[in-house]
Every structure is written in C-alpha cells, then in structure tokens.
Amino acid sequence: MVSPDQGLIFFITLFIMMIGLIFTVVPPIPGTLIIWGGAIFYGLGLGWEQLGWLTFAGLTLLMVVGLVADILAGHFGAKLGGASCLAVTVGAILGFILGIVFSLVGTPILGCLAGLVGTVAGVLLVEWRRNGEWQTAIGATKGYIAGTAVGIMARVTSGLLMLVIFLSSVSMGS
Question: Do 124 and 141 form a contact (C-beta atoms < 8 A)?
C-alpha cells in the first residue's frame, strides 16, 4: 500500500517532470535538467532504493546526451549554414537580453519568444554585416534555425525517454 507521503512525493515528482518536459521545447531552458532534478527529488524523498542507481544512471546519461546534442546541433547547423562564431555568440547574447527584459516586462512566454526572435535577428544581422549580402545572411540563419530545431528534437526525445524510464522503474519497484 502506498502511504500519503509516498503519493505526495510521487505527485510532486511527476509535476516537476511534466514542467521539465514542457521546457524541452523552449530553447533557453534545459528541460532535461529539470526532469533529472525531479528524479533527484524522488530519490531523496523516498530513498534511492525506490528508484535504483541503474535507473538514475540511465536518466543522468539521457540528460547529458540531450543537453550535449542540443548544443552541438545548434552550432553544427549554424556552421553548415555558414554562420560565424561571432554571429552565434551575438545572437545568443541578444536573445538572452531580450528574453530577460521581455520576461520581466511581460510574461515568461513572451520572454521566450523574444529570446528566440533576438537570437535569430542577431545571427541574421551579424552575418549581413559581415558578408554584405542578404542571401548569405539568410542562408546562415536558416542553418542556425535548422540546427536549433534538431537540438530541440533531441531534447524532447531525451525528455520523453527519461520520463518513460522513470515511470517504468517506479511501477516495477512498487
């Protein structure tokens, strides 16, 4: 029989993990890290024998793979499209600043959208300034967007796998 404390910890863990799964779609927020944090919460709350070290190691591996794939895919797409490191860096900084400002002034969702627009605009403008023609700048920006999309897919896949492994482990353990 499940005690009320166990049920509450499981509910809070699932809530944390669902928020993490939602954040796997939002580029600047590491959703897989939030899902992993939910697993830590569960392990600390109910004891690691409830989750199992092998399960936790698998979740850790998927979290790292998701984060690394996301970073590498964005940079690889940008390089494939011809974007410079300067363009990606300026885009990231501009996106970060706009994201923070619009999150404070508006809502977090507006901040995420502003961050995305700022990043893309930063890459586009730096590449246009660097090359002097819009076609090259647009090609570099398309590469960056494609790489970012692949990175998001990697994060979502990792997040879903983490959730499935966690739920499977908990259901087999109880």
Answer: yes
d(CA 141, CA 115): 15
Q: Of 170, 150, 154, 166, which is closest to residue 18 (Cα–Cα)?
A: 166
Percent of the chain residues past pLDDT 70, beyond the cut: 97
Q: Considering the entire predicted model, what is its pTM?
A: 0.80
Residue 36 Ramachandran class (φ > 0 left, ψ -120 to 50 alpha, else beta): alpha
- Tell me how far CA of residue 122 lies from CA of 13, 81, 134, in angstroms: 37, 15, 13
Q: Alpha-carbon Rg of the chain, whole angstroms?
A: 19
d(CA 169, CA 65): 20
Q: Domain locations in the chain?
A: 4-173
